[in-house]
Amino acid sequence: MKKKYILLMFMALIATSCKKDFIDLNPTDSLSPDTFFQTDDELEQAVAAAYAPLRDLLINDYHTSETRSDNTHYIPNPNNRGTATVYQENVSDWNNDANNDYVNAVYYWCYTGISRANIVIGRLPNAAKATDAGKARADGQAKFLRAWNYFKLVRLFGGVPLYLTEVTNAADAFKDRSTADQVYAQIIADSQDAIKELLPPTKFPQTGEATKGSATMLLADVYVTLKRYKEAEDLLNTLPAMGYDLNANYADAFVPTNKNGKESIFEVQYLQGTAVGTQPNTVVFQFLPKTTTTVLITGTAFPSNTTGSGWNIPTFDLLADYEPNDKRLDASIGIAEGTYDASFVMTISAVKSPVNYVPTPGKSYTAFIKKYIHPPFVATTNSNDDWPIYRYSEALLLLAEAQNEQSESPLVALNKVRVRAGLPASTETDQGKLRDIIMHERRVELAFENKRFHDLQRMPNGLSIMQAYAVKAKQNFTNLVANAFDIEPYKFLFPIPLPERNLNPGMKQNPGYSF
Questions:
Q1: Is the pLDDT score of 3 beyond 50?
Q2: 168, 279, 456, 461: which one has the fewest Cβ atoms less than 10 Å from its Cβ?
């Protein structure tokens, strides 16, 4: 009874003493959406959160943007027919549906990045303690990230819902699909803002944040995709003055000690280690052969590599496309020799160069991606390699493409890439042949950087290339299901995820897909 009396007296005191500002509902000892997003430092933290989904995206994007092409495939896993294995195989085999978790993850991680960018952009007007420069820096990076994510979405899925403001209620959460043209218009607007007003110039060494050069490259990539070649050329010609250039050797572009260097225009950042705050790259180990030990490749044995690897394996169709003496072959790809068990797990006995490779009698062999393997590793599946999104060599090849499509000579830009690779300069003048040469250069220069499927989408002969490759794939790959590599034009767009359509029944599915 005494306790109840004391409690009642306390409540009465509060009731009689309250004024309008007596109770502050915003706690001072923890972060709140109402008090955060105020200073330059807080805006910088919010932008960092918008970068973070890129790492999650990359764990899935190589399925949709690389193994979906003639560049890579997978090592079969006949004794593991779990859903995860089957879904990953289906993307590579061109027979996925709208339930595929790996395709759907790309969709959702892009929208996660877009959502976080929208929050930053929408909160900027109320950032009372932030400087104008801090606001501009945050706005530019957020708009770059929003544009890049929408560019990934529109190429993979076509027209998608356009979310440009923070979603704060259920009514705002469900939008109809915009047209592809509308999505591209927003990508262009965001990129132009980032270039003209918001992002700082590139300074070396770079911090890993998006810069004016990053946004310039993104917009040029968009313009080439839309066949707006003159606008792309004008943008690409501004990059050398920003300090970008090629490294002396191709392999140097991927060495961790050269992160964010002069060849890097934008890359996803990783930090090797086991301490709190590190962000090691784990995805590159998925590209190694399934094996009982990786020690001959990595210098450190990773026993877990019997189940979580064997993906994104270079095809021998790609290996055959490298010209003699092309330095990029040995820098990008290795060959593992050994013996397979019934599950295609290899006991590796030797690692060899693919240059002039001759199989050892009695040994099985497989190619693997080498360009992201840079020992030493401090822990199992713990790499310090960044992931390149845009490199200056791609800028040169986009410039060559834009010039060639305008009937200008692309040889200066094209040959800068070829000569660096140890190849003779091209003297070709025929526009059609140059178009094929440039696309060949993109294939081998940018191999395993998630570019090939997007190139096939926009190439006039992309369908015929994949249909011809499908014939060889059906002959060479084991354990394929009956409908594997049934290449149809509609499959150059992925289906809108079924869970998304179940939540938003108004969203129409892409043509050709049954649900």
A1: no
A2: 168
